Here is the input.
Amino acid sequence: MRRRDFFVLAAASSAFFIVPSTSFAYVGPGTGLSAIGTILALIAAVGLALVGFVWYPLKRLFRKKPGAGAISSSGAPGAGEESAQNAASSRKS
Here is the structure.
């Protein structure tokens, strides 16, 4: 069998299986609701995946870090962090 004949035969058999024939089938209410629920769950899963992989990293990227812009009066490095911790602990008590 030549190569061209093989592709013609493959295309013809593929078309035979792809083209639907008329069928009369009953889809009950349970099956229909299950199909609708599955489709909605798939859409929700894709949406939440996009939120998780796109929104939260961008949110963390643009969030300001506390104490990053604080300048201490003593000029010592890290003094601004200590004052922020002291202020936070005094608010708790």
